[in-house]
Specification:
nine-stranded mixed beta sheet, EC 2.8.1.4, single chain, binds magnesium ion, about 375 residues, six-stranded mixed beta sheet, elongated, binds adenosine-5'-triphosphate, ATP binding, alpha/beta, nucleotide-binding
């Protein structure tokens, strides 16, 4: 008898047709990476993956955070023998002590002569006969489902052994993005959601030394570090942004400051993406959340992008974004009260409905290319 972890991957991976093998290999690699440092073995029994680990609780905690894993389940592995299966099944039911139950069998191994229904009926009967206490079979909505999987070995588990995992798709399978990561609540959540769909994360942070402190920078580093727990590694590009902001302040109208700044952020993100082979841009914007996130504001900043811009939070309410931030562990860091570059250079009456042509015209007094090139040249890279 062995205690193992059954890894169930997201149903979407099954739908990948000819690409399924590629998805599975990527997922398996990602699982192995997450288990590094633990004493473990991965066993494939007729297309199901099981993990044998000395520290089973730690392994469960790690594997349930791997994108593409839908559920993990601690199972008891026994010989493929009906009497042994019955005994183990009864033991499991004795642990859970439900009032109602049913047995579900999956017989993948056709060498086993009884079919699934026969196994379920036989084991169910045995449990009813030997269980001390009140217990009924209920097919529709039982308190406890006892699962039996018959493969090379037999595996037994109940609904109580199942633990929900993060889901999504294997990290790294769906291209790459450059996430604009500020120290706020939203952008780390946006990055998490992109990574969860299998998109490789790179981050860019615009730093306005000396107007924003080293502590503000450290906060962004801490957020990148938290995101890296879900990914393989995260490149964080720190772009010196003060010169660009000063140029805008000196050359342009005050009420256009925020929106012009956002156009430069977009340009720098694209330039960095181009330089480092990153395919797209992501940000933490949500429509209507603040003055710069109006439809017009988004149109004017997207105008400066030379590749797709993804805004995974676009339809989400702040409260729902905060819930995810708490769940993924970024919230506590995000709410630390260090200023960011946007809160310092805020116009008193920011434009909420900027017009594209007008913005392009305002900007024409600046040497846009030179400003962007210099910022990119002076960009610092930190890897987590
Ligand atoms: P967040 O909570 O992510 O900071 P926010 O609600 O404060 O977002 P804004 O300050 O308008 O909204 O920023 C919108 C988006 O622009 C952010 O989600 C982030 O993607 C990007 N952004 C803003 N400031 C910076 C910065 N200093 N460095 C990198 N990206 C930034
Ligand atoms: Mg912010």
């Amino acid at each position: 008898m062995n205690q193992l972890i059954l890894v169930k991957y997201a149903a979407e991976i099954f739908l990948k047709g000819l690409n399924r093998g590629k998805f599975e290999r990527k997922l398996l690699n990602n699982i192995k990476q997450k288990l590094e440092g633990l004493d473990y073995e991965i066993i494939n029994d007729q297309n199901r993956w099981f993990i044998k680990a000395n520290n089973i609780d730690e392994a469960v905690e790690r594997v349930r955070k791997v994108f593409g894993v839908a559920e993990v389940c601690t199972v008891t592995q026994v010989e493929r023998d009906l009497n042994i299966i019955k005994e183990q099944a009864l033991k499991k039911i004795n642990e859970v002590k439900p009032k109602t139950f049913k047995v579900e069998t999956n017989r993948a191994n056709k060498k086993f002569t009884m079919n699934s229904l026969e196994v379920s009926r036989d084991v169910g009967g045995y449990i009813l006969h030997h269980y001390e206490g009140d217990l009924d079979v209920q097919v529709k909505n039982p308190e406890c489902v006892l699962n039996i999987e018959i493969r090379e070995h037999a595996y037994i588990f109940t609904s109580a052994d199942k633990i929900k995992a993060v889901g999504g798709l294997p990290y790294g399978i769906n291209g790459s993005t450059m996430l604009m990561l500020s120290g706020g609540i939203d952008s780390p959540v946006a990055g998490y959601l992109m990574a969860k769909r299998g998109v490789e994360l790179n981050c860019v942070y615009y730093h306005s030394h000396p107007y924003t402190s080293e502590r503000a920078k450290d906060k962004v580093k801490d957020l990148a570090k938290i995101l890296a727990q879900y990914t393989e590694r995260v490149n964080l590009y720190i772009v010196p942004f003060t010169e660009i902001q000063m140029a805008i302040i000196e050359g342009c109208r005050e009420d256009e400051l925020t929106i012009l700044m956002r156009r430069f952020m977009m340009r720098c993100a694209c330039a960095l993406a181009e330089k480092n082979g990153v395919q797209s841009i992501s940000s933490g914007e949500s429509i209507g959340q603040v003055a710069s996130q109006t439809m017009e504001g988004l149109i004017v900043s997207t105008d400066c992008a030379d590749r797709p811009v993804f805004r995974p939070l676009i339809t989400m309410d702040k409260g729902d974004i905060m819930d995810i931030a708490r769940e993924i562990g970024t919230y506590e860091t995000s709410i630390l009260p260090y200023e960011d570059c946007c809160t310092i250079f805020v116009p008193k009456h920011p434009k909420t409905k900027p017009q594209l042509e007008a913005m392009r015209k305002s900007e024409s007094v600046l040497d846009v290319e030179a400003l962007v090139n210099k910022a990119i040249e002076e960009t610092e890279l930190v890897v987590f």
